[in-house]
TrEMBL record:
Ranges for domain 7,8-dihydro-6-hydroxymethylpterin-pyrophosphokinase: 6-133
Protein name in UniProt: 2-amino-4-hydroxy-6-hydroxymethyldihydropteridine pyrophosphokinase
Classification of source organism: Bacteria, Pseudomonadati, Pseudomonadota, Betaproteobacteria, Nitrosomonadales
EC assignment: 2.7.6.3
Job description of the protein: Catalyzes the transfer of pyrophosphate from adenosine triphosphate (ATP) to 6-hydroxymethyl-7,8-dihydropterin, an enzymatic step in folate biosynthesis pathway.
Organism whose genome encodes this protein: Methylophilus aquaticus
GO MF annotations in UniProt: 2-amino-4-hydroxy-6-hydroxymethyldihydropteridine diphosphokinase activity
Keywords: ATP-binding, Folate biosynthesis, Kinase, Nucleotide-binding, Transferase
Top EC class, one word: transferase
Pfam families the UniProt entry points to: HPPK
Length: 163
């Protein structure tokens, strides 16, 4: 069994409900076991500003699936929720990103591990620090800092934990 970290986000069609349903889907999928789920966070959009705010979360799962299989399952789940990709950073019903898979380093067309931009995103780092504070970032800029140490950079960003 491998440990994986997955980021979830939505800003269309009742985004809080979409993220909650996606977490329930993860928890009830054979071959996946939900270990931890963060709180939900409201986040201003990144990259394309003319869209509603996002609801984000991060989960940790244990899985029997290999990393490429898990990534394909995430893409299939996005599509099942109605995700469309009209342009980069477009509004979306559901976005699922595989952040880490057993600390594997991988660079293929389908999957890059660890996620190459996770350390740049408060909407990933704050919920990640909540559930796995001692997770060590392996990106060169992070210099081996833990998620909770790195997340302090984002405490004043437009990311707020929901009650």
């Amino acid at each position: 069994m491998a440990l994986a970290l997955i980021a979830l986000g939505s800003n269309l069609q009742q985004p809080q409900s979409q993220v909650e349903k996606a977490i329930q889907t993860l928890a009830s999928t054979p071959g996946l076991q939900l270990i931890r789920a963060s709180s939900l966070y409201a986040t201003a959009p990144v990259g394309y500003d003319n869209q509603p705010d996002f609801i984000n979360a991060v989960v940790q799962v244990e899985t029997e699936l290999a990393a490429p299989q898990l990534m394909q399952w995430l893409l299939d789940t996005e599509q099942a929720f109605g995700r469309e990709r009209p342009f980069p950073n477009a509004p979306r019903i559901l976005d699922l990103d595989l952040l880490d898979y057993d600390h594997m380093q991988l660079d293929t067309q389908l999957l890059k591990l660890p996620h190459p931009r996770m350390h740049e995103r408060g909407f990933v780092m704050l919920p990640l620090a909540e559930i796995v504070p001692d997770y060590v970032l392996h990106h060169a800029l992070a210099n081996g800092q833990t998620a909770v140490e790195w997340a302090t950079r984002f405490e004043h960003d437009a990311v707020r934990k929901l009650a």
